[in-house]
Amino acid sequence: SNNYYYLTQWKILCKKLGQQLKYLSIGGLTALDQLAIDILLNYCNNLDELRINNEIDIISYLSIIRQTVKRIHIDCETGIGLDCISLLAFRHYAEKVIHLGRVDVEPELIDSVISTIGSNFSNLKCLSIRLRNFDIDVSTPADFLFDQLEELSLQFVNGNVDLPFQRIIALGWTTIKCLTIQYASLTRESVDEIIRQLPQLQKLVLHAIEFRCDHLSKRYGHRLCVECGRHCWKAMSRLTKLKHLKLHRIIIDDEICAAIQTMSELRSLDLHYCSNVNETIVDVCAQLAKRIPRQKFTLCIVSRGFLSFHNNYNKNLILDIKVAA
């Protein structure tokens, strides 16, 4: 009885406020919460943006989402399957989706999924894909389908290495300005592919990246190589248009510092839980800050331990240091 009373009062409130609501974000809900959101959505005729953070919610809410909603932002950590993508396209909501993540399908379906998304999600700005297998066969020309896409996120799991990454990047993502790579093993060839296929790249996010040697892998299996890591970072120094670089859980060595020093357009560097963060990388950022006096350079460091730096850096360098508990 209490639930009925509260839902009745909630319905009265939704009638009053629903027309005024412009932004709504929905996460994982209980049965009662879901009923309350159902009531709310029935009165939201002027939504500018709807954010959905759970695949079950996407499918269940499709029947009551008003066609008047202007933008749909989908970000599901558990993954979005082919059935959900097809349903969004069938119900004519695809053209409203500006953010789609994370797409998680079987490897043999990845080519058709990319084709389906590119053909139907015409206003998509950000796409996140989770790749679960080494053997990926893709041939869809991305540059013909994704003319509005600006952000691409690739997450590799289950031992994926360099070849799947090269195949995805080789599709041609000419409009991409931000690339995120998680849990991949890269070689010099994959870095070269980034430089060739992503001419407008301005932001690069690398999360727990390893560098693999082809020669060692052929003889001994999956083997990491310090020398190949140096070659990769030397190749990355050719990303001269890069403005933002974000590194997660990566060892900051001399090769990384040397590569960053040559990125003349770089305006911010984020180091999250990286090892060997010391005054060397801070000095590199201070030198970059001096190159264009009227612009600020931001160095953001998130660490689990305390850091100590001297404070006589250029005034254009902004140090943002956070210590995580």
Features:
alpha/beta; 325 residues; two-stranded parallel sheet; Leucine-rich repeat, LRR (right-handed beta-alpha superhelix); twelve-stranded parallel β-sheet; single chain; 23% strand; 12 helices
Description:
The protein has a single domain (49-323), classed as Leucine-rich repeat, LRR (right-handed beta-alpha superhelix), CATH 3.80.10. The chain has helices at 2-17, 31-42, 55-61, 82-90, 110-120, 142-145, 162-169, 188-197, 214-220, 226-236, 254-261, 279-291; strands spanning 23-26, 49-52, 71-80, 97-104, 126-131, 151-156, 178-182, 185-186, 203-207, 210-211, 244-248, 268-272, 297-303, 317-323. Helix 7 runs parallel beside helix 8. The strands form 2 sheets. A 12-stranded parallel β-sheet has the order 1-2-3-4-5-6-7-9-11-12-13-14. It has a two-stranded parallel sheet with strand order 8-10. Strand 1, helix 2 (31-42) and strand 2 (49-52) form a beta-alpha-beta unit. The radius of gyration is 23 Å and the shape is globular. It has 325 residues and is α/β, with parallel strands linked by helices. The model has no long low-confidence stretch (mean pLDDT 83).
SSE layout and pairing:
Layout (H helix, E strand, L loop, with lengths): L1 H16 L5 E4 L4 H12 L6 E4 L2 H7 L9 E10 L1 H9 L6 E8 L5 H11 L5 E6 L10 H4 L5 E6 L5 H8 L8 E5 L2 E2 L1 H10 L5 E5 L2 E2 L2 H7 L5 H11 L7 E5 L5 H8 L6 E5 L6 H13 L5 E7 L13 E7 L2
Protein name: F-box/LRR-repeat protein 2
Write a brief caption for the model.
With 325 residues, the chain is α/β, with parallel strands linked by helices. It is 36% helix and 23% strand.
